[in-house]
Write a structure and sequence with these properties.
By secondary structure, the chain is of the alpha/beta class. The protein folds into 2 domains: 122 residues, 3-Layer(aba) Sandwich (Rossmann fold), CATH 3.40.50; 166 residues, 2-Layer Sandwich (Dihydrodipicolinate Reductase, domain 2), CATH 3.30.360.10. 33% of the residues lie in helices and 27% in strands. The protein has a 9-stranded mixed β-sheet, covered by helices on one side. A 6-stranded parallel β-sheet has the order 3-2-1-4-5-6, sandwiched between helices.
Length: 329
């Protein structure tokens, strides 16, 4: 069976990890890379052993040998890139966050469905073995009914205000860059839609992007609190509390371990896994879905991506109520 032939749109650092993941995946290969800079594209292709490179996205997408595209550009360009890939009839795996607003997410999936191409957000964490084990424990009722979840994610930014992380024109800020992880992971583990969201966030004093975001999510059966920061190191522990026990997950979005406790706080089970590249499973999912003629994934669903984009709208642009619920100095 012929490999699914990928092209990489955008020659940044994240694209290197994707190329290595494809190299580890049966039935897939990367045959091209595109960048708006010819020098950047050529250097990336040479360094990562990719046969074709392009300094024009349009020229790359016109290549009939390309089956699917991994979009690795900055967040602000994703919707534009998705539209171009769909118009060219290419299947798409788009780096997270896929888009920045609910209307953009709805448009992207509608266009992909109309054209008959596969589209998935690259939310690789949902495939990690330790999170799949947590999902299994919850589904089996090992902690009873979930009552609350708390999750945090963060790191100190590099202080270089001209870089993507701090640039509002490049969709910088903590929520888009890392907040997308706990927002989507928590909802996936709960398995319910968000009913309400309250949030406040602190602006970076120089560029104005969100550097400290606190969110309270209400689900039909439980509540969750999420924090994301680009101002300091954070203990990235997620704790899920239920009526019959609890689960602790260190470094949730990129870790490899989780622990189950009973109602008395005694450890009852511990799970640890090892893996070389966490992107492999999302590549495998993309390949599987394309081969089966599916337009969306059952693990990283359109509904999850659209809901997360709606939360972006609520948190950053539409949060009602007191002034403290909006971006503050």
């Amino acid at each position: 069976m012929q490999n699914i032939r990928f092209a990489i749109l955008g020659a940044g650092g994240i694209a290197v990890k994707f190329k290595k993941a494809v190299d580890l995946t049966e039935g897939a290969e990367v045959i091209a890379v595109g960048s708006k800079s010819a020098d950047r594209a050529a250097a990336f292709a040479e360094k990562n052993n990719i046969p074709l490179w392009y300094s024009s996205y349009e020229e790359m997408l016109a290549n009939p040998d390309i089956d699917a595209v991994y979009i690795a550009t900055t967040h602000n360009f994703h919707l534009e890139n998705i539209r171009a890939c769909i118009a060219a009839g290419k299947h798409i795996l788009c780096e997270k966050p896929m888009v920045l607003a609910e209307s953009d997410a709805a448009e992207a999936f509608a266009l992909a469905a109309e054209k008959g191409v596969f589209l998935m957000e690259a939310m690789w964490s949902k495939f990690l073995p330790h999170l799949c084990r947590v999902k299994q424990w919850i589904t089996e009722g090992r902690i009873g009914k979930i009552e609350s979840i708390r999750a945090a994610i963060g790191f100190p930014g590099n202080g270089k205000f001209e870089t993507r992380l701090y640039n509002p024109e490049l969709a910088g800020g903590g929520l888009y860059d890392i907040g997308v992880y706990p927002l989507q992971i928590v909802s996936w583990l709960v398995g319910e839609p968000v009913l309400d969201c309250k949030a406040f966030w602190r602006k970076h004093p120089v560029t104005g992007v969100d550097e400290n975001v606190s969110v309270l999510l209400r689900y039909p059966s439980c509540d969750a609190s999420v924090q994301c920061l680009i101002s300091c190191f954070v203990n990235e522990l997620m704790v899920i509390n239920g009526t019959a026990g609890s689960i602790e997950i260190p470094v949730t979005h990129r870790g490899n371990t989780c622990t189950l406790f009973d109602a008395g706080g005694r450890e009852t089970e511990h799970f640890t896994c090892t893996y070389e590249n966490g992107f492999v499973w999302e590549v495998e999912e993309t390949v599987r879905c394309i081969r089966e003629g599916k337009l969306t994934s059952d693990r990283v669903t359109p509904e999850a991506t659209i809901e997360c984009a709606r939360l972006f709208d609520v948190i950053l642009r539409e949060t009602p109520g007191l002034e403290q619920n909006k971006g503050c100095e």
